[in-house]
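Supplementary notes for students who missed Thursday's class. We covered one full example, reproduced here. Read the sequence, then the structure, then the short commentary at the end.
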Amino acid sequence: MILTRRTLLGSASLGLIATTLPAAKRAPETRANLFIGTGGHGHTYPGATLPSGMVQLSPDTDVERWDACSGYHRTDTSIMGFSHTHLSGTGIGDMLDILVVPTNGPVKLIPGPLDDPDAGYRQRFTDEHAEPGYYRVSLESGVRAELTVTDRTGWHRHSFPKGPGHILVDLSHLILDTSDTQPLVDEASLAFDADGTLIGSRRVFRWAKGRRIHFAMQFSRRPDRIMFYGDGDTAQPAGTTGVKGKRLKVALHYDDAGAAPVLIRCGISGVDIAGARANLSAEAPHWDFDRTRAAATARWAEALDKVRVQGGTDDQRTIMASALYHAQLAPTLFSDVDGRYLGMDGAVHVVPKGGAAYSSWSLWDTYRALHPLLALIQPARTKSLVDDLIRQTIQSRYGPLVWPLQGKETGTMIGWHGVVPLAEAQAKGIPADYAAAWPAIRRRSFDFAAPDLDNSLGRDLYDRLGYVPADKVFESVSRTQEYAYDDWASSHLARAAGATEDAARLLKRSHNWKNVLDASIGFARPRFADGSWWKPYDPIQLGHMPKPWWRDYTEANGWQATFLNQHDIHGQIAHFGGPSAFESKLDTLFAAPSTLPANAPPDIAGLVGQYAHGNEPDQHAAYLYAYVGAAWKTQAMVRRLCTEMYRNDPDGIIGNDDCGQMSAWFVFSALGLYPVDPVEAVYVFGSPLFTRAEVSVGNGRRLVIDAPGNRADTPYVAAVQWNGKPWTKSWISHADLAAGGTLRFTMSATPNPAFGAKLADRPPSFGQPAA
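Structure (token representation):
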């Protein structure tokens, strides 16, 4: 086991508003490469799903090592089978529900080890192909497996060779880890109904402890015989129609499996089997696999058409399409067709008509770029997400969401960043009942008797001392800064709810980031309860304690945590001695030796100096130069990161994709802008990668980003126009972009230090202009 928190964790004539622009000639379509991120530490999967789909039907190759958190790794040479739920790019594994294994020969009930596929039901494979909404592969048994999906159902088409074959459904299949405590499944059931439907349920204690999944599965051909297996792989008597226990399996035998393809359609639900049946009935009323595949392809074509680019290289366009794909996988749908879903309080609720409930909220990661991207290109979907965030915040005993998975709050990472997409959406004018969430947010902010998970430890000390002390709570430095950011976001929500005194208290407390940034040395530094700082201090180290699990920073060291502050950047600039000193400090970050201690987690990856692009805490750091009037340095570094940290290759994402956060960073940065502080609702300019981009921003509006003549050797912005008029600022508001229009960059091989240098042209922060 790898010890990380995540394992514990144009021209003036174009200067019109977008709605008046004629449709541009479309460039040839660039296809997403679904295998980007399936190698290295990307932790993505290549199987079939829909945007925010409940079902992620994908092959599984391994369940025991960290690099296979999604159940799949591109370097593996055998496939265990195809399961119906997966996590994309996470640092902890779970899911892999309802494994289907189409094969022939003697029935094998265990997958066998990765290094010996012949020892179990694993199969070597060839001819693997993946595209949005569809996957196929040829297995060594001679089976040609094809997968596609609707929102809540998984579809299989398995073409067997001539002769007998069988389909094994393994309900014991899941992600394993050496830290796990058995049993991981404490109750399960399988039954074959008279109508030919295989139904089942299980309760799983992996990452999301106690989550339940239910399914209803139908077959285009009725099996000739069925054999159930109970705990210990004990075969049940012939004629048995069901079994209960913990680790269950069933084999469905076909005497002439090759006579015609065996189609499977499987509905799932987080509520009950009735919900799975209803989802199956509503979304799979026919047996036309190709029709279902065509519908999935059309859904993805619409989603991927939100951003279209021209220019760049073939690989860069593929990376862009793939990043846009990965950025639309999560959060995932969690409500059934009748609107029912399992709430954070353990009760079954019903969403309002037209609404939806969601799961897989990787909020520590995704508040930074993923949710801002959705707010720009998918405002209607963002409205649905925000409504769900509010409902689940009210229902959860922990208030604002942290990292919930299928109705269970895992409390993974630090802070309560569920408040950030809410505050961001409120700032961007997305209508919702934000006041309804305020009581629960207030409890998390001020009621220190309210229950805590790991993510919110030390709240009372943070409030009383102004920081979380390093000798009391682990990851104290990062906690202090991230709690302060959540205070900043929460202050906006308090004000929207009319709680002016609470808003003022939160706003004041959001300055607590200063209390762990030692201005005398210019670093984020562990501080103890008596007010003293850790001595001797080394910014390379993860903290003052020798224990590998006790760290003072969250997936970071002192270097990266120093630039964690997102909401009061001008305050930090002053705290560190002014713009020149801060600029020099940034220079040092990117130029320092890329040395890490032996106990550094693999999450700290993609180093440029001590900047770590492969992890979230400092992913906005390259854009901070704009705040000191050195926007040209932002441009150079962002272009470098776009071209060095992303490749058209399975190992093409530096670090975990984290439910699309790494991908969303690329989408924004390749467009030439980034939301340093999502709650501020502005974007800081970087360096566009393409010559032209067309972005759908909702309600028929279109944003065009032009950079004519842009090349690999022109990373610098010489000038900007907005709707045909000169634009001297190094930033632009969300309201401007969301209204549609044309943003034109004049690119250059040499920097223009004057662009964005004036105080009035630097980005605002903490609701204030540069001063």
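Commentary. The CA atoms of residues 467 and 480 lie 5 Å apart. The two ends are 49 Å apart (CA to CA). If anything here is unclear, bring it to office hours.
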